[in-house]
Amino acid sequence: MKEQHKLKIVIDYEAAKVRAQRSDELLDISKRQFRRLVAAYRQRGIATLAYGNRGRETANRTTEQVQQEILRLAKETCWDNNGCHFTEELTERPELIVVSRSTLQRIRRSTGQGSPRKRRAPQYRSRRERYPQAVMLLQTDGSRHDWLEGG
Predict the structure, then answer these.
(1) Per the CB 3.0–4.6 Å rule, which of 6, 44, 83, 93 could disulfide with 105?
(2) What global pTM score does this model have?
(3) How far is CA 119 from CA 33, 81, 97, 111, in A?
């Protein structure tokens, strides 16, 4: 949608329907950047407006081989470790696989492994029965010392 919006504004500018000052305000870029965008559009066409990294993998992506090794270790040796402990175990092993805890959890969850330790169920806490009036609430001192009566 952003690229289509850019294209529409550049085409309107080329057709002299919109001024340059208004166009850079609509795109929220500087005047210089808008001039560069129009020059690139004139030279190379619509492909200039497309995002440059489209279709490429991210540079910091965890490879498939490392993911398979993590899953193998998780099943064979460290099956009872939670995410944080398993991350520490991986950095201490001779394979030296260094990944973050969140990456490790995402990889394990993608195959349905998840964390072996579940959260404890919340305990039910019963509430006291309400009194008909707020003044009727009994207030007591739980200490063994005689603070108020003075005896």
Answers:
(1) 83
(2) 0.44
(3) 52, 14, 27, 20
